[in-house]
Design goal:
about 400 residues; mainly alpha; Growth Hormone, Chain: A; 2 domains; globular
Length: about 400
Amino acid sequence: MKNNPKLLLYILMLSTLGINTPLSIIGIISQISEYFNTSIAISGLYVSSFTFTIAISGLFIPLLFSKFERKTTLVSILSVFAVSNIVIVFTHSIYVASFFRILSAIVYPAFIAISLTFCEEIAPADQKQDYITKILLGISVGSIVGLPITTGLGTIFGYQIAMAWIFLINFLTLILILIFFPRVAGKSKSYEVPLSSIESKEFLLATIGIIMMPIGASMVYNYIPYFLQTVSHIYTYKLSIFLFAYGIFSILGTWLGGKLIFKKDKETLIVFQLVCASVFLALYLFADYLIAVLLLILIFGILDGMGYNLIQYVEASVLPDSPELANGVFLSVLNGGIAIGIAIGGFLVDGLGVMSVFIGGVIFLIIAFVFMVYVIFVLKINLKYQSVQ
């Protein structure tokens, strides 16, 4: 290909970073409530509508868009984001804002799925997982780096300025795609769902098993700030600094996960669940020891970042003939698992206290471990990099 693969990779990496910044408004819920003159509960629904929509649309939107020319598709999706974000900046109706936020979320999975599929296609044979990992890094960095920037702008200047920054980063990526991205034909003439694959025992059990991982992880992750405030008594700027450090370790984990999954896929998929469950159990047992708690949470940050690679790898392995669908299911599993984990964690915190989320996380990861052992060693699913290890 005459186009520089590395240049295209980094443009798509920056684009996935930009398209993930709408997830970062979770830090300005109070500003959203004030701006729209609505309750915190309604503002929370407005924020979470993006994730819930992705969990549903990821199951069919990537396959629907897979037959279209890719540059046109990517530009069209980024244009939807640009128009939606500019409307969101200026509207004073939370219903109008919600409509355009959900509209963006509907087409979001197609952008990520195409980016993952295209990067694997242009990557040298021995660098395919590295290219995929960089796109996954764009996803995680967009949320991790976007959160403090959006929160800072929203806190200091208000909701509209925070949303204006999200519009600008998305508009920048739209210009980059327009200028540098080549025209590439879609891979499917029609969007037929591969029923034989999605009805297979391997797909169903692998997907059920792997969704337990983001459920367990998000159950803990989303209540770490509350745990640190109420149990470890870490507040204000100290909490912000530590959570930023957690984000850096999570980015490192995404990179490390890509390396490990390429070299030792079976071992990584199995051992990950046990290590993460052990970290949660240790947090429960050593909650009164601040240094131990901080170190364990940073270790969890690495494991949390690795999760992106593991989920994407499992779905790509059980749906090898439909990469767009596999990447769409990956997004649905990731976002659906996060949403379920947050909900279960909320009930546990209300009913049993914040310490209960660690035990809940352990339970879901043990279930994931059992399923992974079964599908890998009993059903013997064909893992993607099995032949090169």
